[in-house]
Amino acid sequence: MKKKLIIVGNGETAELAYLYFTNDSEYEVAVFAVEKDYITEARLRGLDVAELEDIENNYPPKEYEAFVAVSSTKLNTLRTRLYSKVKAKGYKFASYISSKAYIGYEVEIGENCFIMENNVIQTFSKIGNNVVLWSGNHIGHSSVVHDNCFISSHVVISGFCEIGENTFVGVNTSVANNIKIGDYCLIGLGCVIAKDVPDNTIMKMPYAQKQVISAKQFYGIKE
Asked: How many CA atoms lie within 13 A of 216 on its CB side?
């Protein structure tokens, strides 16, 4: 018999979580839960959308586990707040780990984590609570990703690195060995991080610039 699960949220991330848990886990999603001021429809994916404020009355923690499915909004602080709110109600949290992810030996993964397909988490690494690893990342050996982080796609974090709490790491970022990125950092897409990054820092690379000459002109194609 599958375990019963409450998904907290009603956005795209919540629908993705529903699909992943339904098709690739030991859980059966029973209901969505949303703060009453943010309920936009009574049902989602054929399930009820219940008020989070009193969710424990109809879906008690002894019978249901929870998963907070919220994106990286405001450096993950929305997801962190909801995670804390649900935890205070006494719920145990599920983590989703894709069957298509590679998890090395002696890896630690916390609660309320969402680890999608094609992630590689190497031996001795530690993933904290309430962490999202979108698809296709590499977490090097003995590295630590602390609580409430969001690692987007195709990020390479080398060995012996540390990613601080509530940090967002953008697509195609590369982090060298033995690097520490602080808490509440925003690492933009395509960054190459070769030095430690202090807390509360934004890092970004120059964006590609549009050239004066057109692509057809460059290749000698008649306009």
From this structure: 3
